[in-house]
Amino acid sequence: MILGINGSPRKANTELMLDEALAAAAGKTGAATEKINLRRLTINPCLGCFKCTTPGGEDEDAGCRVFRDDMDLLLPKLAACTGLIIASPVYFGGVTAQLKAFMDRTEPLLRYGVGRWKLGLRNKIGAAIAVGGNRNGGQEATINAIHHFFFIQDLLVVGTGPDPDPGCYLGAAAHTGLDPETGSLPRNAVTGDPLGLRAAGIIGRRVAEAAAMITPDRG
Amino acid sequence: MILGINGSPRKANTELMLDEALAAAAGKTGAATEKINLRRLTINPCLGCFKCTTPGGEDEDAGCRVFRDDMDLLLPKLAACTGLIIASPVYFGGVTAQLKAFMDRTEPLLRYGVGRWKLGLRNKIGAAIAVGGNRNGGQEATINAIHHFFFIQDLLVVGTGPDPDPGCYLGAAAHTGLDPETGSLPRNAVTGDPLGLRAAGIIGRRVAEAAAMITPDRG
Amino acid sequence: MILGINGSPRKANTELMLDEALAAAAGKTGAATEKINLRRLTINPCLGCFKCTTPGGEDEDAGCRVFRDDMDLLLPKLAACTGLIIASPVYFGGVTAQLKAFMDRTEPLLRYGVGRWKLGLRNKIGAAIAVGGNRNGGQEATINAIHHFFFIQDLLVVGTGPDPDPGCYLGAAAHTGLDPETGSLPRNAVTGDPLGLRAAGIIGRRVAEAAAMITPDRG
Amino acid sequence: MILGINGSPRKANTELMLDEALAAAAGKTGAATEKINLRRLTINPCLGCFKCTTPGGEDEDAGCRVFRDDMDLLLPKLAACTGLIIASPVYFGGVTAQLKAFMDRTEPLLRYGVGRWKLGLRNKIGAAIAVGGNRNGGQEATINAIHHFFFIQDLLVVGTGPDPDPGCYLGAAAHTGLDPETGSLPRNAVTGDPLGLRAAGIIGRRVAEAAAMITPDRG
């Protein structure tokens, strides 16, 4: 299953990109896909208590020991996927705080995890999507931040692959434009960015293709 | 006034680094300093509604039109400072979600702002501090993310300056070490990192020195 | 004097951007400007011998002890400037090898220098320009690489400043497009990128403005 | 075959790290390994002429149409490997000019290539090693720069994987220390950095393991 995470608090642009990627992934290998909109979920930011990585707790499989929130729904999905596509709008040159809260709460999946989620993302395929109002407004930095998360979680990371003129090699990058007076992004503006939308499709196919290439048991 | 923002949800390591920087800043030029611990504040994540950058609102000077929370306390401090030091522990290769929520909510200070906070950080001096459990665990990426915020907000950005062997040129980077079994960071572990603590002092002096060099009116 | 360094081996796109920046810098404050095209110079790559940072050499002021090449012409210009704009095309997600060779050979200007070039770039204003064939093809990474050089050399680093819709906040970023079949960049294609060219002007004015704000002696 | 490229102009530190990685790769899966020291080769920097990506040339399989140099030896090795480990010392926050010259000259391997080298690195496994004199002196940035190259060349990129306390998640990072007076790196200083050397072994095993997991034909 190819899992897509949408880190935008708004409807539309970033979700349209992720939809494009997931549709392309399904079309490439027939893989099942699932989309998570973080804007519909409650995920408290990590407090850095490290209880989730401390052996001997009463409920090691619970993941977080502090918050019972929607991360409980996401951990099984993350552990079940074979490919993971994370999409974020560019907020101040990086991922949204909402997406970062999700990332920070994946600690139980780490090598330091103590329960059943430990190494739950290992050897999955990861790829990133970023949507910016400015043309070079942090799309690369946002993708790099998502990649850093992937490397920490031990995924194999792919870029846009061998298609010509992908716009961005690191991942799919869109440019919605912004209102020069207010700096706001028009809803659905990404529909006017064929380069970005095409790249989303490329990244979806690339994740599906790479996930199908992997036989982790041979590792 | 040199303002320090601590993005850690925990007491200790990152705050110790920031304390070192602010003390050095004060010692260098006699500048007043102030420290903000985000862990004591409530800052809701930005919803991307762009109301704060839309002209003609009833209360343009209010900053955010959605949330009345502790950002109301921070906007005047940001507008008043001449230097800004932002410190974060490294969480999954970047700033904490709590610090990112703060950054994302500074939208009223942008060039797109419509009220009295507009361009409130322009031509201030900015510098960054990162504290990681791993030695090269994302300190550079975390500092880069803070720098990206600074560039968007139109600060002049400084690194650790001309002291020999600063550990990191981009900003002050500490390495606390971590428990190899649990991945946790011992509280106060940064006291065992003289290189990191010295760099925090360097960065504090550098910010104070650079802030004293600037005469924005001449621009 | 505002110094511009062009790291492209080709005529045209990157140089056009740098010309735009230098013209804008001169127009803003009347500053003198000078442009260096690295393609016309011979700069051998650094061998990492550290002779230039070893005290007690016979000719400490010579800079490099290994190569007598065109770096001899550049060191005095670097030491004399008050602002430095470095422009590079994006080659494989970063600066050209030719520009990197130049950067690596600035070792005598470092804090570790032993002769008259030591700290020659300290407290100057630095800004970056990147020109890519792909839209998000490494412009941010290229600017970051130039910034890293600036931080090591102890400059104050500025982005595109408070103009609305600068395309990129980190520095001036252009998108020339590329031939989808050959991946080549049309000569002068940047003339078809008004956003990029405008950003070059912004960055030039920003460097001139910031350089005029600095009184290093007060530091 | 796992190919290692050493971008250092000096003997010792970076090569020791690469040796450690290649030995670990061989030990993990019995893969053949080969090491290339760029310091022994002549690789002219790319002139950006795009002749290598222009169809219809007389000798499309030649790679570069301008320089007959040691890239002719490297293209077949790159096309033949299943894993690629690139190691660089940190020079001014990034890869050496010598390594960048190598990267820039791999244009014939790109999707835009016209001869037999086209897509020669596609679906190989890539990983990076960086060796810095400063503790956080650009190791992350150097690894990111190598990763950017990998993404452009369509590799699957891996970090240090699930071992605890890898020092750096992005790749293997060493810290040699430097002479605080001269900024020089002692030869073989990396032998005093067990964390870095261990990470080099981790990265070698990770590349071998991942390369053995891939069946590109299934893609």
Description:
4 copies of one chain form a homotetramer. Chain A has 219 residues and is of the alpha/beta class. Helix content of chain A is 32%, strand content 14%. The first copy, chain A, has helices spanning 13-29, 71-80, 97-104, 139-152, 194-213, and strands at residues 2-6, 33-37, 83-89, 125-132, 156-157, 172-175. In chain A, strands 1, 2, 3, 4, 5 and 6 form a 6-stranded parallel sheet that branches. In chain A, helix 4 (139-152) links the parallel strand 4 (125-132) and strand 5 (156-157). Chains in contact: A-B, A-C, A-D, B-C, B-D, C-D. The interface between A and B is large, with 44 and 44 residues.
Short description:
The structure is a homotetramer of 219-residue chains. The first copy, chain A, has five helices and six strands.
Largest beta sheet of chain A, briefly?
6 strands, parallel
SSE order of chain A, as H and E?
EHEHEHEHEEH
Low-confidence stretches of chain A: none
Helix coverage percent of chain A: 25-40%
Count of individual helical segments of chain A: 5
Could you give the count of β-strands of chain A?
6
Query: What structural class do you assign from the helix and strand content of chain A?
Result: alpha/beta
Share in β-strands of chain A: 5-15%
The 3D shape of chain A can be described as: globular
Oligomeric state of the chains in view: homotetramer
Chain-averaged pLDDT of chain A? 94
Radius of gyration of chain A: 17 Å
Task: Show the largest interface.
Answer: A-B, 44 and 44 residues
| N-to-C span of chain A | 20 Å
